[in-house]
Amino acid sequence: MSCRVFGLEPEAVYGEDKEKAEFDLDFDHEVDSMDFKLNDEPVTKSFGSRMNQKARAGVIKPSGSIETSANLQILGHYFYGFLDNYKFTAGNNNKNTHEFWGGESKLLKSFRGVSVNDELVFYLFGLLVDSMKLEVSSEDMTLGADFIYKTELADILEDENEYERAEELINDLFIMFYDVSLKLNGNDPAGVQTSFTLEGNNNHDVDKTIGFGYRHPQGQAKANKRENSISIVTTLTQETVRAILDARYGDVDLLEPAKCKILQVPLELNVELCEYPGLGLTIKFPKCTLLAEFDSSGIDDVEATLNMATLGSEKVRLADNTTEVTTDMYVKLVNNQPKIAPSN
């Protein structure tokens, strides 16, 4: 049986050099796809010839990506890396609350990671979540993440069963589309929604981390503008046509484009699994721009896509019901995981 897994643990110091034996993963999980590469294209020179004559090693700008089925136990670490604020509240019966929200910090939390590819294992240092994607359609919720990182070590195993997995997660059923519900502008959206996609990007600037005398990043890349884009696909019906036109024309009850308005509404996504009462996920986008696009083909149903981009100008109240934060994205995750923090 093949072994294709990925694991994470937060770093206390960005890119700190550790021996392989010192890695203490919080978890590892199976992946549908995984790709970590050095991006070290050689620099070649032709000197007037039609053929390259000489080559030297190029600069290393390591990056990687994973895609897997999302579950409530692993999502916290990805939000921890993608968003810059985190609050933990211990709960009863090991049901703990993790809150994450976007702010203005440019130095995000970093991880060590392990990428297992059967007999070949990569130990990764200085992992930063550059982008994150959640997608729900007719089956399960998929999680995608793109990373940049500092450097790596490799290990070759005798066989693919030699890798020792981290402690098994509990209550880690993957999230299905029927576990998910949406609230648009405080209400259940009209009609039937058939897919939801969130794509977030931190736009890290790697170029400014490589200086004279080095091939790979020397320090932690800073995050630039955070961009969150959301799309919801629905079908054009009598139930949905008014809401779609409102999004298309920028105001309610119009039959032509508004003179100067665009709709700005809150959006909320909730996840509850009937197998695990008390556990769940809430993602709030307190204010989003809203546009509508159409796809009409043959005699198929007309599909409309609501495209949204988040704005960071509204407040969200945290789980303590007192603290308010201004943000473009807030996440409340209740699961069985302890506080996310570097190991001692």
UniProtKB/TrEMBL annotation:
Keywords carried by this UniProt record: Carboxypeptidase, Hydrolase, Protease
Molecular functions per Gene Ontology: carboxypeptidase activity
Protein's name in the database: Carboxypeptidase regulatory-like domain-containing protein
